[in-house]
Amino acid sequence: MRKIFIGLMAFFAIVVGGLVIAVMVVDLNQYKHTLEASIKDASGYDVRIEGDIKLSLRPVGVSVRDVQVSEGGNAATVKEFAIALEVLPLLSKEIKVHYLVLKGVEVKIQKDANKPSTQASKSPKNPKESTQMPLVEVARVNVENMNILYMDVQAKTQATVENVNLAITDIRYDGTKEGIRALGLHAKGEIEKVRYEKYTLHDIEVVANLRDALVDISQMDYRIFDSKAKGSATVDLGAATPKVSLKEHVPQLKLANFSKEILGNDLLEGVLDMQMDLDFIAGTQKQVRQSLEGAVVFEGKSVGIKGYDVDKILSGYEGTQNVGLMDVGSFLVAGPLGFMLSSSAKGAKAYEGMKGGATAINHLHVKIPLGKGIATLEDVAMSTGKNLVATKGKIDMVNERFLGVSFGILEKNGCAKYEQEIEGALSKPSIKVTQTTLNTVVNMASSLFGKATDVARLPKNEGACQPFYKGKVEYPL
Fold this sequence. Notes:
The chain is α+β, with helices and mostly antiparallel strands. The protein has a domain at 292-464. The protein is built from ten helices and 21 strands. Helix 1 packs across helix 2.
């Protein structure tokens, strides 16, 4: 994206220079090829001006139609570009712009890991000349109807940003500073839609300031899963890799919409309160995971799971005669969030044998602190009409592995009456074989043969047990 916008800015600089030299004296259309060649020579970007260049007296300015900028797989087109200048400041070698308008902007950005960087070859020929910039002030920039397509060739993913409208004011460029630190501005924008894989944000409203390489996004409102969300963020562009601090709050996340859009079924109902407070480096996927700090918390009451009676599944294996042991084990491995996380057909198939009925979750609470690439399941539990179930342990987000994750069905005192430990990769988890696991399998087998047994329960001496869970969710009354 930076390369594309550098190319556009180089084009705008050439046009402004043309104004300074020949305001209303010459027909710039005859110099199209000269302008294109100058930009190519200065920046390395291919620029084509397909439309007319028109000059105006009141205000003094220029408008250009159908501009194309390209470099490799990246490209940008501007349907209409217009700029108006103040004349008197030019005598003091200052550039003051009344307004700059960009309409019908289409940007295509392609990330190709195998493509060598050509940044060095695109530096201006004389670095000393490039730093001798006049003081630039721009009163207003309007961007209308901009669309962006981003493609990651290696990851085989893409993101789209549709119908962006920006009003940028208080724009200053200080030639005494270097790089992004020289630029300051205030921006207010509206974006119709942002889509990445299955996730879509709608009706985004943003208010931001840029000062000394720090982007302060004070307002970031949008809709996700037809639920209103609010957020704020800061992005430090002064470092080699941008540092991001993000706060988000979705007070009424509609689970029915989440279930249909992400899971592709009608499994969940109710609402959740979701909050995120995260700091990370906006680099590669591995860098993001390694640098993640903060916490994710969501909580809901009166949440429903359609088509599955969790209490029946957990109640001493009643009715399990028609359920395969792999299905029962799959549920125990997945824990209380298994239904939400089974977004694939393969994951959902594990629960086929348990279908029937419904579950009313009285209280669902998930708190996951993040740090140094590790997600800690600090307070992850849910209560149904008859049971309290919880998950604890850690997840290695960088290497995508379970680290001592256990799922427990709990007694009223917080001790586990049944417990399973999960190990291995996230993509292929397995049950860790312990004495408790063996007892549980014996109990399953006994239930299938119609012989009730209680060997999977921990000792009845409540005073001697180690509480499995001490969190926010209480045992059902």
